[in-house]
Design brief:
Blueprint (H helix, E strand, L loop, with lengths): L1 H47 L5 H28 L5 H18 L8 H32 L1
Helix pairs in contact: 1-2, 2-3, 3-4
Length: 145
C-alpha cells in the first residue's frame, strides 16, 4: 500500500525540482536586469556630472547591495535544491539586507523617537545576525574537523 502512494508522489517531486530550477533562472534574469539598471544609473550620473553627489552614491550602493541580496537568494535556491544547508546563506542575505537599510537610512534634521528606535533596532538586529553568523561558521568549522 505504501509503494502505491509513493508512486503518486514521485511526479510531484520531479515537478518541484523543475520549478526550483525555473526559479533559479528567473533570479538570474532579475540579477541581469538589476546589473543593467546599475550600469545605466552610473552612465546617467556620469553624464549629468552627479557622480560625486553623496545622495547619488548612496543610491548606487543601495542598488549594489540589492544585487548582492539577489545573489544570496539565488545561492539559497541552489543550495536548497541540492539539499544543502541554507542557514549560513540566509544569515548573510539578512546581514546584507539590514546593512542596506542602515546605509539608506536618512534621519531628518531633528531625529524623533521613532527614528532613534529604528536606528537602535537595526543596530541590535545587525549585531544579532553577525553573532549568529559567527556561531554558524564556528559550528561548521568544528563539524569539519
Amino acid at each position: 500500500m505504501d509503494d502505491d502512494f509513493g508512486r503518486y508522489v514521485i511526479p510531484s517531486e520531479r515537478l518541484m525540482r523543475i520549478l526550483e530550477v525555473v526559479a533559479a533562472y528567473i533570479i538570474v534574469g532579475l540579477f541581469a536586469l538589476g546589473l543593467f539598471d546599475f550600469i545605466v544609473q552610473i552612465v546617467e550620473l556620469t553624464l549629468a556630472g552627479q557622480l560625486r553627489d553623496p545622495t547619488a552614491v548612496v543610491s548606487l550602493i543601495d542598488t549594489v547591495l540589492l544585487l548582492f541580496i539577489i545573489v544570496e537568494i539565488f545561492r539559497t535556491v541552489v543550495a536548497y535544491s541540492r539539499e544543502e544547508s541554507v542557514v549560513r546563506i540566509v544569515i548573510v542575505a539578512a546581514i546584507i539586507a539590514v546593512s542596506r537599510k542602515i546605509i539608506s537610512f536618512r534621519p531628518g534634521d531633528d531625529p524623533g523617537t521613532s527614528e532613534l528606535v529604528f536606528a537602535a533596532a537595526f543596530t541590535l538586529l545587525l549585531i544579532a545576525l553577525v553573532i549568529a553568523l559567527y556561531v554558524v561558521r564556528t559550528t561548521e568549522t568544528a563539524d569539519e574537523a
